[in-house]
């Protein structure tokens, strides 16, 4: 009996030493290459589960890869719309019978393009300028000469802007930011800072639809205000004017920042 108890005690000490050895590494112990018969049986029984998991993982990987390959902001997939070279949203076919979810996704894409374009034209300047060639208007604002070969008149500026925005809703501020003089066009490059409290914008729904225009509801989110207030949301209308059957340009629009 004493001999048996000694053997059991020795075995317990050996097991304890092996466990402590695993903990000293600071990470999970590496499995031994020797597989017991019981483990082999368990693995064999779980083969179907493992194969199913592998199939599921492969499917997720495929979806992720496809999503990464899409360069246009079409979060619902399907490739029904994309940006053209100018930044307008273009559908492969007329969008009259398209699901509202796809329309909202396209509205979000156009809204983001409109924000970038409006900022570039009214705050910054999308054209090369010579900041050593300056003129002033009646208010003392300074304007730099545009040196782009394609911009010779104010109408050229307007044509570039209207690649993303529809002429249905003229931008009255552009005429005060671009001036023609001495056979050239000059730009007032204000370069103000954006609203530091602005967080994000989301197209949340469709307000109305007609044959050539869709009005969306946009929620703009802000983290606070200049008076110490907390986060808040502003709701605006935004519209997509449909031209040539499948080209969307921004219509009703307010820059949120």
Distinctive features:
257 residues, alpha+beta, six-stranded antiparallel beta sheet, four-stranded antiparallel beta sheet, 35% helix
Describe this entry's structure for a reader.
- With 257 residues, this protein is of the alpha+beta class.
- 35% of the residues lie in helices and 25% in strands.
- The protein has helices at residues 2-24, 37-45, 47-69, 100-122, 154-161, 174-177, and strands at residues 81-83, 89-91, 129-136, 142-146, 178-181, 184-187, 198-209, 213-222, 232-243, 247-250.
- The strands form two sheets. Strands 1-2-10-9-8-7 form a six-stranded antiparallel beta sheet, with helices on one face. A four-stranded antiparallel beta sheet has the order 3-4-6-5.
- The longest helix has 23 residues, at 2-24.
- Mean pLDDT is 78; it is low at 1-72.
SSE ordering: HHHEEHEEHHEEEEEE
Range of helix content: 25-40%
Largest sheet: 6 strands, antiparallel
Strand arrangement within the widest β-sheet reads 1-2-10-9-8-7
Helix-and-strand structural type: alpha+beta
* β-strand number: 10
Parts with pLDDT < 50 across at least 5 consecutive residues = 1-72
Question: Would you summarize the structure shown here?
Answer:
This protein has six helices and ten strands, in the order αααββαββααββββββ.
